[in-house]
Specification:
9 helices, about 70% helix, 2 domains, binds zinc ion, mainly alpha, globular
Length: about 270
């Protein structure tokens, strides 16, 4: 029980750091210095006002100095991170898998919230994820070779690179098809874009699917790709009911779909077949 509490508190602190990344990475600012400050009045935030979730509740969502609203996104990111890490710890214990999938979902949280805020993601985040996945598969490969008797084609690093190429290729193929049909549609409509979009899928989405392939494999790529539109549809219905009209970019849907596939992927796959 104590270990779960520790993981949860560590998760909240990681989430707090992710908030800094989400706010600063897209603006190419340092994530180390300066320490946190209020985005409205720029006053430095005291450590006791910077405790994950609790400070938000205690201050009732307002800055101590200027009393302007603090975005609900901050505690949300902290709670999501804590629950995801708790879930992973429960599944894998303290292990290389916990570390591997922890990195994946931390990156998904960061790219999703950056995409919501800026409608774009820094390309290096997915490249970083892909590099880490390949690096971790190298560690597993060294372990496998030491144990001996493994087929070269079944070495973790070979499988990871194959899955990476599949993810990139699969998404890029759909991008080409999508762009082709979108081009025809825009030609007929004599327009340049659909609500500002000129491409069916951005290259960021392609990198993202490469990352999903490298971490989770071929089945996950296919399932995530076809599940994400349903997640988007569910949100759209929700938004219509609650009259929240603003459009959300695609990466958050892909990330939610990834989590669903991570938890229930085998069930979904068996159900479809
Ligand atoms: Zn303030």
């Amino acid at each position: 029980m104590l270990d779960l509490a520790i993981v949860f508190v560590v998760g909240l602190s990681v989430g707090s750091f992710l908030n800094v990344c989400i706010a600063r990475l897209p603006e190419n600012k340092s994530i180390v210095k300066p320490s946190s400050f209020c985005p409205h009045c720029k006053k430095a935030i005291n450590w006791y006002d910077n405790i994950p979730v609790l400070s938000y509740l205690f201050l009732m969502g307002k800055c101590r100095f200027c009393k302007k609203r603090i975005s609900i996104v901050y505690p949300a990111v902290e709670l999501i991170t804590a629950f995801v890490l708790l879930f992973l710890y429960n599944q894998f214990g303290l292990s290389l898998d916990l570390f591997k999938y922890g990195i994946l979902f931390i990156l998904l949280i960061v790219v999703s919230f950056i995409d919501i805020k800026y409608h774009a993601i820094p390309a290096y985040l997915c490249i970083l994820g892909i590099s880490l996945a390949v690096f971790l598969s190298l560690i597993s490969t060294i372990k496998a070779i030491k144990q001996g008797g493994v087929d070269l084609g079944l070495l973790p690093v070979v499988i990871t690179v194959k899955n990476l190429i599949f993810g990139l290729g699969f998404a890029y193929l759909f991008k080409l098809f999508g762009d082709f049909f979108m081009g025809i549609y825009l030609g007929f409509q004599k327009k340049d874009s659909i609500e500002g979009e000129t491409e069916s899928l951005g290259l960021g989405d392609v990198d993202f699917m490469g990352m999903i392939g490298a971490f989770l494999g071929v089945k996950a790529v296919i399932l995530v790709f076809f599940l994400a539109p349903f997640v988007a549809l569910a949100y759209t219905v929700f938004a219509l009911i609650f009259k929240k009209s603003h459009l959300i970019p695609y990466l958050p849907y892909l990330s939610i779909a990834t989590f669903i596939v991570f938890v229930w992927g085998n069930n979904i796959w068996n159900f479809i077949l």
